[in-house]
Write a structure and sequence with these properties.
about 725 residues; alpha+beta; Ubiquitin-like (UB roll); Four Helix Bundle (Hemerythrin (Met), subunit A); 3 domains; 27 helices; globular; binds adenosine-5'-diphosphate; binds magnesium ion
Length: about 725
Amino acid sequence: MSLRFDAINNLNNGKEVKVAGSKKITAIFGENVFTHQVARDFLSGEAYKSLMNSIKAGQKIDRTMGSQIAMGIRSWAESKDVTHFTHWFQPLTGTTAEKHDSFFTLKSDGSALETFDADALIQQEPDASSFPSGGLRATFEARGYTAWDPSSPPFVIEMSGGKTLCIPTIFVSYTGHSLDYKAPLLKALESLDKAAVEVCNYFDKNVSKVTATLGWEQEYFVIDEALHNARPDLVLCGRTLYGHSSAKGQQLEDHYFGAIPERVYAFMRDYEEEAYKLGIPLRTRHNEVAPSQFECAPIFEECNLAVDHNTLLMDVMSRVAIRHKLKVLLHEKPFAQINGSGKHNNWSMQTDTGINLLAPGRTPKTNLMFLTFFVNTIKAVNDYSDIMRASIASAQNDHRLGANEAPPAIISVFIGRYLNKVLQDVKERVGDNFDEQDESLLKIDIHKSIPELLMDNTDRNRTSPFAFTGNKFEFRAVGSSASCANAMTTINSIMAETLKKFKKEVDALVEKGEKKEIAILHVIREYIVASEKILFEGDGYSEEWAQEAEKRGLDNIKTTPTALDAMVTDKAKQLFSDNNVYTHAELEARHEIELEKYIKKVQIESRLMGEIATSQILPPSIRYQNLLAKNIMGLKNLGIEQSAYANQHQILQKISEHINNLSDLVEQMIESRKKCNAIADTREKAIAYGTEVKDKFFDQVRYHADKLELLVDDKEWYLPKYREMLFLR
Ligand code: ADP
Ligand code: MG
């Protein structure tokens, strides 16, 4: 029997996993985290202070304090029966990496000893040679090291009864070039902090730190593990390369409003509990539009921590699913003809005085501050939309952007009718004539009306890639399997840069004798005028928008290899080096890595497409073709009139055509791949893989295979069908 029928037959055998009765969240929240409270309990006063200074003010931890902190962390971990530790980091493969070491070591006399010293905490040397480096290590130095990030707390992962202490770290080459997602993010956050504090100080001298905040929304599919395992495409690529759409798909939208299926519900409760223990503040869960699609979202947190938590949660979900004999699909487009998955990134900035800088205030002063940060964000996106587009580019996300279910590939900003009017008012009232300016400008009535916006979220636009939603912006174009880090590094960098320019321009006016508030309003006005083309309130899915955007000179780049160009322009290099986020060499390296990832993804999919066609689709099709042929021959031999088996003839005809076409196309695709492989330039090769392999063949090859799926005897078909994966539980 085929794996497909094994999976279907076993669907209900022993799959119910008992989940312990719900514990109160507050009783378990953060129980596996070295929280500030735990730090206080396990560290000396001095060591605790040193750790806090490092977290809050970025101060260096010296060696003595380092060993004290390491000892404290170890005794905490041992109190939880932890035996191993690892530096946990986020290499550019897009997953997480760990190398487990035991606390256990041998003394020179051969007796056993448990250790974990400052060195083990602060710095490690994983074998870096197999992580992507985009040529950085070849150019510079062959080794890399991981270094502790004190701002993200250590945590304990429980797996198969074993427990491992994980230390969040950055991953850099020996020459100091970053090889991960965390190091540049931390630098971008630092740059934003500095730039934003300076601008805040126009309004409030008490602000001394600004942190970016992030609340992500994670979409995912859940399907039965055995059905998943019978699909080599899901196993190797995370998406189905074949499969006719199910007669029932998402058209009834009954899944969105439906109750969460019981098996999935048990899984959710289980992973949520793990997440709570790890301090991930999940708050919402619900069904999504497509069958078997779901979403979860936490309470927002400081950006770096939120990125770690999202990365960690993706791991936790995948691991817990296995306990339930389920499989989580984080891919952006696991199923054709059905909505894909995204990861909305809700982003804002918060001061150490407790003010959300994107929340309209209650007084004229705080409202001017809101307006300043609000308009600077719009200006940042306006000036750097190409870099934002590049930050979310991937082979997987190409299936989704612009597919009338996710935001278009055109970056624009939605702010709602009300705030549009506010910006228009400012534009008109302030005017561009300086001489006529006076104090009356300061009475611009922005303070009375803006707060109403918070109540009025009704005109939210779901088709916008970057939307203001009352007290934060929501970057909706991020892919579901992507780390939030890339998008967040970009947003925080472009915001830092824009705020720095803003400050320079305001200061220049003040130096000329302008009153500070007037100067601020003037620069705001200038930014509003300069950014008008990026604002769009209409339907982002419509053809009219694509045309209108072109007229406005906005990019509409649909594929990853060309979208990535924006990473290595002079503009990008200047932006990232001025903000100390990436050196030119690092940008070039990342660009290369992203292109290579794209090539490999398409290459693997293409190879597997060929293999599945010849080894799993053609065999049952040819068997069925034979059966029909024999049947026709038999009828003919019996002297039965041809008109009596005309239908069999027709089916045989169709099947034969599809078989022929499918095997022809697979051969042609292989030839095309060979040509692409011969291209030396990485960018050219990526573009060729996109047009000459993916665009030219994937849909066509699939077309014939999917037709065969409809024609061939169901019991002969090897691959689980869409209706089974999406609706059987
Ligand atoms: P929805 O967008 O589904 O209506 P919410 O508006 O409550 O839901 O929030 C969506 C996400 O935005 C949540 O993860 C939430 O924590 C996050 N969020 C809310 N406020 C902020 C903020 N100031 N900064 C960053 N994220 C935020
Ligand atoms: Mg949302």
